[in-house]
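Deliverable D4.2, example record:
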Amino acid sequence: MFKGITKRWVLNTLLVVVVVVLFVVFCLSYAVRIYYYHSVSQTLSSASAEFQSVLENYTSDSPAFASTARGYVENFEGKEKMEITAIDAFGNVIITSTGFTPDSTEQMPDYLKATGENLSYYEWTGKLSSNENVKAVTRLIKNSEGDTIGAVRCIISLTDIDRTIGTAIALFCGFGLLIISLVVFSGLYFVRSIVTPVRELSETAKKIAQGDFNTKIEKTHDDEIGDLCDSINNMATELGASERLKNDFISSVSHELRTPLTAIKGWAETMQYCGTVDKETFDKGMDIIVKESSRLTSIVEELLDFSRLQSGRMILMQEKLDILAELDEVLYMMKERAISEEKHLLYDKPEAMPPVEGDKNKLRQVFINIIDNALKYTQSEGVVGIQVLDKNDFVSVVVTDTGCGIAPDDLPRIKDKFYKANQNVRGSGIGLAIADEIIALHGGSLDIESGIGVGTTVTISIPVAK
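Output generated by the structure prediction step:
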């Protein structure tokens, strides 16, 4: 039970609260004891000083000294709270407020200390032989020459005072325990409200890590824990979607690889096992083998580029280049395909463009990918148009087609890895993502605008060389 967050809470919070409460209880208890004992001391000091002022004008052998002492003691109003005693110069008790002769065996430490060290006033706290806790003071009475003519002793029982102090300390301890109990219960409730969802989150995360992307966490609080639940649920949904895209990608790539391999193997076997074939059949077979080999190479290169981008190992061989010359070569390669597919490839070539700085092969790969997509999604007799525009700091290549277009729901994700808006058309789903990453590495942008049944416009912007 006491591990993790709970253990840290006990060590860091509860122990601090307990120490603080104990310290406050101790300080309050000590303050109450000091207050009551100090009050008793003041009462004893005032009573002894008043009695002293009555007797200090007499001599100890004067009959008036003893009679005055007896009269004061007998009429003393506080005799119910304290015992007051008059003592002569020889240490004999003249009278006590109790009316009883004092026990001769009972020691008077305060009187002995005051007379032994010639102290005018001495206070003592201790226990009598009856085990009663008392506070006593002795005040010596001296004449004008400084000779001791007697003493006044006042004593108060601390039993009731100690009981009052004990009650106060018990109340303080009870209040402290109440505070600690409230802290414990509220803290455990708070910790449990965190630990329980965190454990659920941990279990859910383990299931997600094992591939169960359909698991969800029930959100019970609208706070940081609730936000974390939403985040994990969203993560599971995204991972599930990514997993499906990955599976679709693997299936698509497998199909893309199998198609040219099947064609190559088929024609190779035909020419191998059919003996001598006529030149027309031979030329046709070799033409298909070369084309499918090129297609296979293109797919493998695309996968290698994807791997390099994922691992951050894509290196650009930057140089100043004429973007029109690179685009001319790509269009020359695409021209025959457009003719064979009965599609119109229109190119409005400008006279000149400022040079750009980039990787010639990577930019050519991007142009091939974008134009290939345009031709792929354009129906027979459709049009694919290419424009090159000078936009001050950028040169933009705009590829427009009259194809089927992209649905509004698919458009925001069309550049995501593995995502294919149209599953019925060949392709791995990473070509556009790679093109976008390559252009981003050049410091440019790849923007797509599309509408269902209208067509698609792709704008590739590349910074002008400085």
